[in-house]
Amino acid sequence: MIAAAKITLLALAILLLIATVLPFVRSPYWWVRMFDFPRAQIAVGMLVVLGLYGIVNLGVAQAKPYEWVVFALLGLGTLYQVARMAPYTPLASVQTVDASDGVDRERRLRFVVSNVLMENREIDRWVRVVRAEDPDVIAAVETDAWWAEQIREALEADYPHAIEAPQDDTYGMLLYSRFPLLDAEIRHLVEDSVPSIFTRAELPSGDTVQIVLLHPRPPRPDIQQNSTWRDAELVLAANEVQDLDPPIMVAGDLNDVAWSRTTRLFQELSGLLDPRIGRGLFSTFHADHWYLRYPLDHVFHSDDLTLVELRRLDSIGGDHFPMLIELALEEGREREQDTPDAEADDREVAEEMVEDAAEEKAEETSAEQHEREREDQ
Hints:
Layout: H1 2-21, H2 30-33, H3 39-57, H4 65-85, E1 108-115, H5 123-131, E2 137-141, H6 145-155, E3 161-165, E4 173-177, E5 181-187, E6 196-202, E7 208-214, H7 228-242, E8 248-253, H8 261-270, E9 297-301, E10 305-312, E11 323-329, H9 344-376
Parallel strand pairs: 1-2, 7-8
Antiparallel strand pairs: 1-11, 2-4, 3-4, 5-6, 6-7, 8-9, 10-11
Helix pairs in contact: 1-3, 1-4, 3-4, 7-8, 7-9
Protein backbone atom coordinates (compact mmCIF):
# COMPACT_ATOMS: atom_id res chain seq x y z
CA MET A 1 0.00 0.00 0.00
CA ILE A 2 2.77 2.44 0.95
CA ALA A 3 4.76 1.50 -2.16
CA ALA A 4 1.72 2.16 -4.38
CA ALA A 5 1.13 5.52 -2.67
CA LYS A 6 4.76 6.52 -3.22
CA ILE A 7 4.60 5.58 -6.91
CA THR A 8 1.38 7.57 -7.32
CA LEU A 9 2.87 10.63 -5.61
CA LEU A 10 6.05 10.39 -7.68
CA ALA A 11 3.96 10.24 -10.87
CA LEU A 12 1.98 13.29 -9.77
CA ALA A 13 5.22 15.11 -8.94
CA ILE A 14 6.61 14.43 -12.41
CA LEU A 15 3.38 15.61 -14.07
CA LEU A 16 3.44 18.82 -12.03
CA LEU A 17 7.07 19.41 -12.98
CA ILE A 18 6.22 18.91 -16.66
CA ALA A 19 3.36 21.41 -16.27
CA THR A 20 5.86 23.87 -14.79
CA VAL A 21 8.45 23.44 -17.54
CA LEU A 22 6.12 23.45 -20.58
CA PRO A 23 5.41 27.23 -20.52
CA PHE A 24 9.14 27.81 -21.14
CA VAL A 25 8.62 26.33 -24.61
CA ARG A 26 7.99 29.04 -27.21
CA SER A 27 5.12 27.30 -28.91
CA PRO A 28 1.55 28.42 -29.72
CA TYR A 29 0.11 24.91 -29.32
CA TRP A 30 -2.83 24.88 -26.94
CA TRP A 31 -1.42 21.95 -24.92
CA VAL A 32 1.64 24.11 -24.14
CA ARG A 33 0.00 27.49 -23.60
CA MET A 34 -2.74 26.07 -21.35
CA PHE A 35 -0.14 25.68 -18.60
CA ASP A 36 0.43 29.46 -18.52
CA PHE A 37 -2.88 29.71 -16.68
CA PRO A 38 -3.01 27.46 -13.56
CA ARG A 39 0.13 28.60 -11.72
CA ALA A 40 -1.66 28.88 -8.38
CA GLN A 41 -3.28 25.48 -8.83
CA ILE A 42 0.05 23.87 -9.80
CA ALA A 43 1.79 25.45 -6.79
CA VAL A 44 -0.90 24.16 -4.43
CA GLY A 45 -0.71 20.73 -6.05
CA MET A 46 3.06 20.64 -5.52
CA LEU A 47 2.70 21.56 -1.85
CA VAL A 48 0.05 18.87 -1.35
CA VAL A 49 2.23 16.20 -3.01
CA LEU A 50 5.25 17.25 -0.92
CA GLY A 51 3.19 17.07 2.28
CA LEU A 52 1.65 13.71 1.48
CA TYR A 53 4.98 12.24 0.49
CA GLY A 54 6.46 13.35 3.79
CA ILE A 55 3.63 11.62 5.63
CA VAL A 56 3.98 8.41 3.59
CA ASN A 57 7.73 8.33 4.21
CA LEU A 58 7.37 9.26 7.88
CA GLY A 59 10.27 11.63 7.40
CA VAL A 60 12.72 12.42 4.63
CA ALA A 61 15.32 10.06 6.11
CA GLN A 62 13.50 7.15 4.45
CA ALA A 63 13.51 8.75 1.01
CA LYS A 64 15.75 7.27 -1.68
CA PRO A 65 18.28 9.46 -3.56
CA TYR A 66 16.16 9.75 -6.73
CA GLU A 67 13.17 10.71 -4.59
CA TRP A 68 15.26 13.48 -3.01
CA VAL A 69 16.00 14.80 -6.49
CA VAL A 70 12.36 14.73 -7.62
CA PHE A 71 11.07 16.45 -4.53
CA ALA A 72 13.87 18.99 -4.41
CA LEU A 73 12.81 19.92 -7.94
CA LEU A 74 9.21 20.00 -6.76
CA GLY A 75 10.14 22.47 -4.03
CA LEU A 76 11.97 24.65 -6.55
CA GLY A 77 9.00 24.42 -8.89
CA THR A 78 6.69 25.63 -6.14
CA LEU A 79 8.94 28.61 -5.45
CA TYR A 80 9.07 29.41 -9.16
CA GLN A 81 5.29 29.33 -9.56
CA VAL A 82 4.87 31.58 -6.53
CA ALA A 83 7.54 33.95 -7.84
CA ARG A 84 5.69 34.33 -11.16
CA MET A 85 2.52 35.37 -9.32
CA ALA A 86 4.22 37.45 -6.62
CA PRO A 87 4.15 40.75 -8.57
CA TYR A 88 0.36 40.52 -8.48
CA THR A 89 0.21 40.60 -4.69
CA PRO A 90 0.49 43.43 -2.14
CA LEU A 91 4.01 42.15 -1.38
CA ALA A 92 5.31 43.80 -4.57
CA SER A 93 5.70 47.48 -5.36
CA VAL A 94 2.86 49.02 -7.31
CA GLN A 95 3.40 49.85 -10.97
CA THR A 96 0.55 52.37 -11.07
CA VAL A 97 0.65 55.03 -8.35
CA ASP A 98 -2.44 56.17 -6.48
CA ALA A 99 -4.11 59.35 -7.66
CA SER A 100 -3.46 62.53 -5.72
CA ASP A 101 -6.05 63.61 -3.16
CA GLY A 102 -8.55 66.03 -4.58
CA VAL A 103 -7.76 65.41 -8.25
CA ASP A 104 -10.36 67.15 -10.41
CA ARG A 105 -13.40 64.91 -11.00
CA GLU A 106 -13.65 66.28 -14.53
CA ARG A 107 -10.29 64.68 -15.31
CA ARG A 108 -11.30 61.20 -14.16
CA LEU A 109 -12.61 58.25 -16.13
CA ARG A 110 -14.64 55.56 -14.37
CA PHE A 111 -14.78 52.41 -16.50
CA VAL A 112 -16.38 48.96 -16.29
CA VAL A 113 -15.36 46.08 -18.56
CA SER A 114 -17.45 42.92 -18.58
CA ASN A 115 -17.48 39.62 -20.46
CA VAL A 116 -21.20 38.88 -20.27
CA LEU A 117 -21.15 35.24 -21.57
CA MET A 118 -23.22 35.33 -24.74
CA GLU A 119 -25.68 32.62 -23.62
CA ASN A 120 -26.29 34.40 -20.31
CA ARG A 121 -29.69 36.11 -20.23
CA GLU A 122 -29.56 37.69 -16.76
CA ILE A 123 -29.68 41.22 -18.15
CA ASP A 124 -31.38 42.67 -15.06
CA ARG A 125 -28.61 41.32 -12.86
CA TRP A 126 -25.95 42.73 -15.20
CA VAL A 127 -27.59 46.15 -15.28
CA ARG A 128 -27.95 46.20 -11.49
CA VAL A 129 -24.28 45.35 -10.89
CA VAL A 130 -22.97 47.80 -13.49
CA ARG A 131 -25.26 50.71 -12.64
CA ALA A 132 -24.40 50.42 -8.94
CA GLU A 133 -20.86 51.55 -9.81
CA ASP A 134 -22.00 54.63 -11.78
CA PRO A 135 -19.33 54.25 -14.51
CA ASP A 136 -18.66 56.84 -17.19
CA VAL A 137 -17.87 54.23 -19.86
CA ILE A 138 -19.06 50.61 -20.07
CA ALA A 139 -17.50 47.92 -22.25
CA ALA A 140 -19.19 44.57 -22.81
CA VAL A 141 -17.69 41.70 -24.79
CA GLU A 142 -19.05 38.35 -25.97
CA THR A 143 -22.24 40.21 -26.91
CA ASP A 144 -24.73 39.22 -29.61
CA ALA A 145 -27.66 41.20 -31.07
CA TRP A 146 -29.86 40.28 -28.09
CA TRP A 147 -27.37 41.78 -25.65
CA ALA A 148 -26.98 44.89 -27.80
CA GLU A 149 -30.74 45.46 -27.83
CA GLN A 150 -31.16 44.82 -24.10
CA ILE A 151 -28.24 47.01 -23.03
CA ARG A 152 -29.27 49.78 -25.41
CA GLU A 153 -32.76 49.86 -23.92
CA ALA A 154 -31.39 49.88 -20.37
CA LEU A 155 -28.62 52.43 -20.81
CA GLU A 156 -29.17 54.73 -23.77
CA ALA A 157 -30.88 57.46 -21.71
CA ASP A 158 -27.77 57.88 -19.54
CA TYR A 159 -25.16 56.63 -22.01
CA PRO A 160 -26.09 58.23 -25.34
CA HIS A 161 -22.74 57.61 -27.05
CA ALA A 162 -22.26 54.06 -28.31
CA ILE A 163 -20.14 51.86 -30.54
CA GLU A 164 -21.74 48.52 -31.29
CA ALA A 165 -20.29 45.45 -32.98
CA PRO A 166 -22.57 42.58 -31.90
CA GLN A 167 -21.82 39.08 -33.24
CA ASP A 168 -23.32 35.66 -32.63
CA ASP A 169 -19.95 33.87 -32.39
CA THR A 170 -18.90 35.14 -28.91
CA TYR A 171 -16.65 37.87 -30.35
CA GLY A 172 -19.13 40.75 -30.38
CA MET A 173 -18.33 43.90 -28.39
CA LEU A 174 -20.20 47.00 -27.25
CA LEU A 175 -19.06 50.32 -25.79
CA TYR A 176 -21.38 52.84 -24.11
CA SER A 177 -20.37 56.23 -22.76
CA ARG A 178 -21.70 59.31 -21.02
CA PHE A 179 -18.94 61.24 -22.72
CA PRO A 180 -18.64 61.89 -26.45
CA LEU A 181 -16.72 59.19 -28.34
CA LEU A 182 -14.47 60.64 -31.03
CA ASP A 183 -12.79 59.03 -34.05
CA ALA A 184 -14.56 55.73 -33.40
CA GLU A 185 -13.34 52.74 -35.40
CA ILE A 186 -14.25 49.06 -35.44
CA ARG A 187 -11.12 47.33 -36.65
CA HIS A 188 -10.01 43.77 -37.35
CA LEU A 189 -6.34 43.44 -36.48
CA VAL A 190 -5.85 39.77 -37.37
CA GLU A 191 -9.10 38.08 -38.34
CA ASP A 192 -12.11 39.47 -40.16
CA SER A 193 -14.37 37.81 -37.60
CA VAL A 194 -12.67 39.26 -34.50
CA PRO A 195 -13.29 43.00 -34.02
CA SER A 196 -11.60 45.54 -31.80
CA ILE A 197 -12.73 49.06 -30.94
CA PHE A 198 -10.55 52.17 -31.09
CA THR A 199 -11.98 55.50 -29.93
CA ARG A 200 -11.34 58.57 -27.78
CA ALA A 201 -13.57 59.54 -24.85
CA GLU A 202 -13.84 63.28 -24.29
CA LEU A 203 -13.79 64.07 -20.57
CA PRO A 204 -15.74 67.03 -19.10
CA SER A 205 -12.39 68.83 -18.78
CA GLY A 206 -11.98 68.73 -22.55
CA ASP A 207 -9.14 66.19 -22.37
CA THR A 208 -9.52 62.97 -24.36
CA VAL A 209 -8.55 59.43 -23.36
CA GLN A 210 -7.82 56.88 -26.07
CA ILE A 211 -9.75 53.65 -25.40
CA VAL A 212 -8.91 50.35 -27.08
CA LEU A 213 -11.19 47.35 -26.49
CA LEU A 214 -9.88 43.86 -27.33
CA HIS A 215 -11.15 40.28 -27.18
CA PRO A 216 -8.80 37.96 -29.11
CA ARG A 217 -9.36 34.26 -29.67
CA PRO A 218 -8.11 32.00 -26.85
CA PRO A 219 -6.09 28.79 -27.03
CA ARG A 220 -8.79 26.10 -26.67
CA PRO A 221 -8.23 22.38 -26.15
CA ASP A 222 -11.81 21.45 -27.07
CA ILE A 223 -11.30 22.52 -30.71
CA GLN A 224 -7.49 22.29 -30.75
CA GLN A 225 -7.20 26.05 -31.25
CA ASN A 226 -3.69 27.37 -30.69
CA SER A 227 -2.67 30.77 -29.32
CA THR A 228 -1.32 32.05 -32.66
CA TRP A 229 -4.21 34.44 -33.34
CA ARG A 230 -4.35 35.75 -29.78
CA ASP A 231 -0.62 36.36 -29.59
CA ALA A 232 -0.55 38.18 -32.93
CA GLU A 233 -3.52 40.38 -32.01
CA LEU A 234 -1.90 41.43 -28.74
CA VAL A 235 1.36 42.25 -30.51
CA LEU A 236 -0.37 44.22 -33.26
CA ALA A 237 -2.51 46.08 -30.71
CA ALA A 238 0.63 46.97 -28.75
CA ASN A 239 2.25 48.30 -31.92
CA GLU A 240 -0.85 50.36 -32.68
CA VAL A 241 -0.85 51.80 -29.16
CA GLN A 242 2.72 53.02 -29.62
CA ASP A 243 1.50 55.32 -32.40
CA LEU A 244 -1.40 56.79 -30.38
CA ASP A 245 -1.28 60.00 -28.39
CA PRO A 246 -1.67 59.50 -24.62
CA PRO A 247 -3.53 59.20 -22.37
CA ILE A 248 -4.36 55.64 -23.40
CA MET A 249 -6.33 52.79 -21.85
CA VAL A 250 -6.51 49.24 -23.26
CA ALA A 251 -9.13 46.90 -21.82
CA GLY A 252 -10.88 43.63 -22.48
CA ASP A 253 -10.92 39.90 -22.01
CA LEU A 254 -7.52 39.09 -23.49
CA ASN A 255 -7.92 35.34 -22.96
CA ASP A 256 -4.51 35.39 -21.33
CA VAL A 257 -3.31 35.61 -17.75
CA ALA A 258 -1.53 38.59 -16.26
CA TRP A 259 1.78 36.75 -15.73
CA SER A 260 2.11 35.13 -19.16
CA ARG A 261 4.96 35.79 -21.57
CA THR A 262 2.52 37.25 -24.13
CA THR A 263 0.94 39.69 -21.67
CA ARG A 264 4.38 40.79 -20.51
CA LEU A 265 5.37 41.27 -24.14
CA PHE A 266 2.23 43.33 -24.77
CA GLN A 267 3.15 45.61 -21.88
CA GLU A 268 6.74 46.04 -22.99
CA LEU A 269 5.81 46.79 -26.60
CA SER A 270 3.02 49.20 -25.70
CA GLY A 271 4.72 50.82 -22.70
CA LEU A 272 1.47 50.58 -20.72
CA LEU A 273 1.15 49.99 -16.99
CA ASP A 274 -0.76 47.25 -15.15
CA PRO A 275 -2.60 48.60 -12.07
CA ARG A 276 -2.89 45.08 -10.58
CA ILE A 277 0.86 44.87 -9.97
CA GLY A 278 1.45 45.37 -6.26
CA ARG A 279 -2.27 45.16 -5.48
CA GLY A 280 -3.70 41.72 -6.28
CA LEU A 281 -4.61 39.09 -8.85
CA PHE A 282 -8.19 40.31 -9.45
CA SER A 283 -9.06 36.94 -10.99
CA THR A 284 -12.20 37.29 -13.10
CA PHE A 285 -12.69 33.81 -14.62
CA HIS A 286 -14.27 31.37 -13.73
CA ALA A 287 -17.01 33.05 -11.68
CA ASP A 288 -18.60 29.73 -10.70
CA HIS A 289 -15.45 27.85 -9.68
CA TRP A 290 -13.32 29.53 -7.00
CA TYR A 291 -10.62 26.86 -7.35
CA LEU A 292 -10.18 27.54 -11.10
CA ARG A 293 -9.90 31.31 -11.35
CA TYR A 294 -7.50 33.33 -13.47
CA PRO A 295 -7.02 37.06 -14.22
CA LEU A 296 -8.26 37.10 -17.82
CA ASP A 297 -9.92 40.53 -17.92
CA HIS A 298 -7.38 43.34 -18.09
CA VAL A 299 -7.01 47.12 -18.07
CA PHE A 300 -3.68 48.72 -19.01
CA HIS A 301 -2.96 52.43 -19.22
CA SER A 302 -0.32 55.04 -20.06
CA ASP A 303 1.86 56.63 -17.38
CA ASP A 304 0.03 59.97 -17.34
CA LEU A 305 -2.93 58.22 -15.70
CA THR A 306 -3.03 57.36 -11.99
CA LEU A 307 -5.30 55.03 -10.05
CA VAL A 308 -8.35 56.15 -8.09
CA GLU A 309 -10.01 52.74 -7.69
CA LEU A 310 -9.66 49.15 -8.92
CA ARG A 311 -12.13 46.45 -7.98
CA ARG A 312 -13.63 43.16 -9.12
CA LEU A 313 -17.43 43.39 -9.13
CA ASP A 314 -20.12 40.89 -8.18
CA SER A 315 -21.25 38.05 -10.42
CA ILE A 316 -23.55 38.91 -13.33
CA GLY A 317 -24.66 35.34 -13.97
CA GLY A 318 -21.96 34.59 -16.54
CA ASP A 319 -18.55 32.97 -16.24
CA HIS A 320 -16.61 36.24 -15.77
CA PHE A 321 -16.74 38.86 -13.04
CA PRO A 322 -16.78 42.47 -14.33
CA MET A 323 -13.89 44.78 -13.48
CA LEU A 324 -14.15 48.41 -12.36
CA ILE A 325 -11.32 50.89 -12.72
CA GLU A 326 -11.23 54.63 -12.17
CA LEU A 327 -8.25 56.54 -13.53
CA ALA A 328 -7.23 60.18 -13.17
CA LEU A 329 -5.32 62.24 -15.69
CA GLU A 330 -2.31 63.72 -13.89
CA GLU A 331 0.43 65.02 -16.14
CA GLY A 332 3.74 65.41 -14.37
CA ARG A 333 3.58 62.15 -12.44
CA GLU A 334 5.01 59.99 -15.22
CA ARG A 335 8.41 59.80 -13.50
CA GLU A 336 6.80 58.17 -10.47
CA GLN A 337 5.72 55.19 -12.57
CA ASP A 338 8.02 52.52 -13.97
CA THR A 339 7.10 52.27 -17.65
CA PRO A 340 7.83 48.87 -19.28
CA ASP A 341 10.11 48.85 -22.31
CA ALA A 342 10.83 46.16 -24.90
CA GLU A 343 14.34 44.97 -25.70
CA ALA A 344 15.56 43.91 -29.14
CA ASP A 345 14.98 40.21 -28.38
CA ASP A 346 11.40 40.92 -27.35
CA ARG A 347 10.73 42.74 -30.61
CA GLU A 348 12.10 39.79 -32.57
CA VAL A 349 9.77 37.43 -30.71
CA ALA A 350 6.86 39.77 -31.43
CA GLU A 351 7.67 39.83 -35.14
CA GLU A 352 7.77 36.03 -35.19
CA MET A 353 4.32 35.88 -33.59
CA VAL A 354 2.86 38.13 -36.27
CA GLU A 355 4.60 36.16 -39.03
CA ASP A 356 3.25 32.88 -37.63
CA ALA A 357 -0.29 34.26 -37.72
CA ALA A 358 0.17 35.51 -41.28
CA GLU A 359 1.43 32.09 -42.40
CA GLU A 360 -1.44 30.29 -40.67
CA LYS A 361 -3.94 32.69 -42.22
CA ALA A 362 -2.44 32.12 -45.68
CA GLU A 363 -2.67 28.35 -45.18
CA GLU A 364 -6.31 28.59 -44.12
CA THR A 365 -7.15 30.84 -47.07
CA SER A 366 -5.46 28.42 -49.47
CA ALA A 367 -7.30 25.45 -47.95
CA GLU A 368 -10.65 27.27 -48.23
CA GLN A 369 -9.93 28.16 -51.86
CA HIS A 370 -9.08 24.55 -52.72
CA GLU A 371 -12.28 23.41 -51.01
CA ARG A 372 -14.36 25.85 -53.05
CA GLU A 373 -12.66 24.74 -56.28
CA ARG A 374 -13.37 21.10 -55.45
CA GLU A 375 -17.03 21.88 -54.77
CA ASP A 376 -17.33 23.76 -58.10
CA GLN A 377 -16.00 20.80 -60.09
